[in-house]
C-alpha cells in the first residue's frame, strides 16, 4: 500500500541481507556487508535462545565460516577493494543456520520451545505465551492489570509482540497462521471475556469469537513456566535469620526484569541483596523509614547502581515482594529482620489478589 511504512527489526534486516546474497551477492553494498557482520555478532554475543540449540558440529562449522569471513575483511585494502567480496559473503551465508528465520523457526518447533513475557501498553500489562501446541502455532494473551481492555488495542499489541518477539524466532502472525486467544480485563461484577481473534494482512480488521474459559485456562497452565519459586508458605522459627536471608536472596535471584518491594522499614540488608542480582534488573522500593545509616548508603549506592529507586511514604503495613510483575510474596516481617522472630513467607496463590496488589503498587508508586 502506498505510503505504508514497514517496521524493521534486526531479524527482518538479517533475513533481508541473507536473501540479497542468495539472489545476487554483487548487489550487497559495503555498508550492508558491515551491517550483516554487526547483526551476526549481536546474535552470537548474546544468550540467544535459538543459537543455544545448535549441535556442536554445526556451531563449529558456523563459527569457522564467520572467522574466515571476518579475517578476510581485515585484509581488505580500503573500501574500493572488492576482490574478496564473494569469498566473504559466501562464508557468511554458509553460517546462516540458526541466524535466518527459516532455520530459527525449524529449531523452535523441533525443540518445543516457548516464548513468554509481559509487555506494557498504555498503562496496561499483558502477559503472553507463544508455542506450537498440538501442532498449531498458538499465541495466548492475558490481561494482568491496568484499566484498558486488550480488545480495544489488539492490533497494536500484536504488532509489538510480533516485532519484538515472534519475528526473532522466525514467525509471522499472518504468514504462519498463528491462532490467537486471550483473556481480557477483569472488572468487578462483569463476566470475563475469553476470545479468539483473527486479523487480515497487516494485522488489521480484527474479528472476535468467544471461547470457553476453562479450555483457555487449561492450555495456559500447560504452557511454559507457571510456578513461583516458593509454592507453599515457608515458616521461619525464631532465630532463623540466616535461613530467612537465604530465602529472600533466592527469591530475588529468580527475577529476570524487576523486583518491586513494599517494606516499611529497610536497612543495608537491601543493598547487600541487590548486589546479588544482575544490574539490568529494576528494583523499586516503597518504604516508610530508612533505618540506621541506610539513607546515606542508598545515596552512595545509587551513584554506582542506576537500577534501584526508593520512594518514602507512609500508610503501608504488610510487606510484599513482586517479582517480574508476575509473582507476589507476602512477608511476615521486614527483610532486615526476617527470622528474628517466628514468621512466614507466603506466595499469593489467587490471581485476582496478585493483580490487585500489583495494581495497588503501581498506583502508589505513581502517587509518590
Placed side by side, the strands forming the largest sheet appear as 7-15-14-13-8-10-12
Q: Please indicate the percent range of residues in DSSP E strands (runs of 2 or more).
A: 15-25%
What is the ordering of alpha helices and beta strands? HHHHHEEEHEEEHEHEEHEEHEEEEH
Count of β-strands = 15
Taking all Cα atoms into account, the compactness measure Rg is: 25 Å
Main beta-sheet annotation: 7 strands, mixed
Weakly predicted, low-confidence segments: 1-6
Structural account:
The protein has helices at 10-24, 30-45, 56-74, 85-94, 101-110, 154-166, 213-222, 241-252, 269-274, 294-304, 351-367; strands at 115-121, 124-133, 136-145, 179-183, 194-200, 204-210, 234-236, 258-262, 265-266, 282-287, 289-290, 308-312, 319-323, 327-331, 343-347. Helix 1 crosses helix 2 and helix 3 runs antiparallel to helix 4. With 368 residues, it is an alpha/beta fold. The two termini are 47 Å apart. Mean pLDDT is 87; it is low at 1-6. The strands form three sheets. Strands 7-15-14-13-8-10-12 form a seven-stranded mixed β-sheet, sandwiched between helices. Helices cover 38% and strands 23% of the residues. The protein is built from eleven helices and 15 strands.
Quick summary:
The chain has helices at 10-24, 30-45, 56-74, 85-94, 101-110, 154-166, 213-222, 241-252, 269-274, 294-304, 351-367, and strands spanning 115-121, 124-133, 136-145, 179-183, 194-200, 204-210, 234-236, 258-262, 265-266, 282-287, 289-290, 308-312, 319-323, 327-331, 343-347. The protein has 368 residues and is α/β, with parallel strands linked by helices.
Amino acid at each position: 500500500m502506498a505510503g505504508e511504512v514497514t517496521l524493521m527489526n534486526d531479524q527482518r534486516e538479517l533475513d533481508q541481507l541473507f536473501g540479497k546474497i542468495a539472489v545476487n551477492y554483487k548487489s550487497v553494498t559495503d555498508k550492508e556487508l558491515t551491517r550483516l557482520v554487526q547483526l551476526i555478532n549481536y546474535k552470537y554475543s548474546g544468550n540467544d535462545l535459538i543459537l543455544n540449540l545448535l549441535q556442536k558440529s554445526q556451531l563449529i562449522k558456523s563459527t569457522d565460516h564467520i572467522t574466515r569471513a571476518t579475517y578476510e575483511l581485515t585484509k581488505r585494502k580500503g573500501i574500493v577493494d572488492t576482490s574478496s567480496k564473494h569469498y566473504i559473503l559466501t562464508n557468511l551465508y554458509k553460517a546462516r543456520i540458526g541466524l535466518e528465520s527459516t532455520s530459527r523457526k525449524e529449531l523452535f518447533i523441533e525443540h518445543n520451545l516457548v516464548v513468554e513475557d509481559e509487555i506494557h501498553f498504555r498503562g496496561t500489562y499483558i502477559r503472553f505465551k507463544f508455542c506450537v501446541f498440538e501442532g498449531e502455532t498458538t499465541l495466548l494473551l492475558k490481561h494482568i492489570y491496568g484499566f484498558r481492555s486488550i480488545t480495544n488495542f489488539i492490533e497494536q499489541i500484536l504488532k509489538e509482540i510480533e516485532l519484538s518477539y515472534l519475528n526473532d524466532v522466525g514467525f509471522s502472525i499472518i504468514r504462519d497462521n498463528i491462532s490467537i486467544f486471550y483473556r481480557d480485563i477483569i472488572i468487578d461484577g462483569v463476566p470475563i471475556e475469553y476470545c479468539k481473534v483473527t486479523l487480515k494482512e497487516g494485522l488489521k480488521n480484527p474479528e472476535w469469537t468467544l471461547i470457553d474459559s476453562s479450555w483457555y485456562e487449561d492450555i495456559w497452565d500447560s504452557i511454559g513456566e507457571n510456578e513461583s519459586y516458593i509454592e507453599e508458605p515457608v515458616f521461619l522459627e525464631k532465630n532463623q535469620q540466616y535461613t530467612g536471608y537465604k530465602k529472600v536472596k533466592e527469591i530475588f535471584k529468580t527475577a529476570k526484569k524487576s523486583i518491586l518491594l513494599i517494606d516499611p522499614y529497610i536497612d543495608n540488608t537491601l543493598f547487600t541483596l541487590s548486589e546479588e542480582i544482575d544490574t539490568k534488573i529494576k528494583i523499586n522500593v516503597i518504604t516508610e523509614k530508612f533505618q540506621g545509616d541506610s539513607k546515606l548508603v542508598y545515596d552512595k549506592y545509587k551513584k554506582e547502581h542506576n537500577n534501584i529507586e526508593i520512594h518514602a511514604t507512609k500508610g503501608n503495613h504488610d510487606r510484599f515482594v513482586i517479582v517480574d510483575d508476575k509473582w507476589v510474596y507476602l512477608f511476615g516481617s521486614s527483610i532486615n529482620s526476617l527470622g528474628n522472630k517466628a514468621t512466614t513467607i507466603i506466595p499469593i496463590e489467587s490471581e485476582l489478589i496478585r493483580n490487585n496488589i500489583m495494581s495497588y503498587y503501581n498506583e502508589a508508586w505513581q502517587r509518590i
